[in-house]
Amino acid sequence: MGNMCVRATSAEAGATLELDKCGERTDLERWDWWGNALQLTGSTLCLTVPANYGRGSRPTLQTCAVNTSAPLSQGIWPLWAKQSFRWLGKKIAYGSYSFNVLGGQPNPGAAIALWNTTGDNTKFYFSGKIKAYSNSKCLDLPHSRTANGTVPNLYTCGAKGQPNQEWDYHF
Length: 171
Prior knowledge:
Elements (H helix, E strand, L loop, with lengths): L3 E5 L8 E5 L9 E4 L2 E4 L4 E4 L11 E4 L12 H6 L4 E3 L2 E4 L2 E5 L10 E4 L10 E3 L9 E3 L12 E3 L11 E3 L2
Antiparallel strand pairs: 1-2, 3-4, 5-6, 7-8, 8-9, 9-10, 11-14, 12-13
């Protein structure tokens, strides 16, 4: 969406999504991808679809099912299922819907909701850290080298904005 980023309205359970200029509130616009979940970086909150979702439903932040040690049989399955998104072309999809900029204008404060999967208002790209699911280490360029032939490795995740661990995924 140009220089616009998807941002949570706060870092609290129940917060919704909207567009804002990138870099205005980096603590609310950085996301980690855990399996099929989108987690607000530095928090235990994941995007969650409402129980009775449909066109126009707004995902909210809720405690991540992937961060719990409770077995799926103890009621975690319904929450996990509501946090399971997929990449569909250039879209973040859930069921037959995808994220969409409501109102069709990608302006600061525009709401993000589930809608039909057509049009430019549904196209996004992912930017942020790439973490290994097994140990939460980040894909890293050793010693911040950027020369041709540099081999990335896994390393302890550093502070937000650490350039040797920030990646863009254009899908």
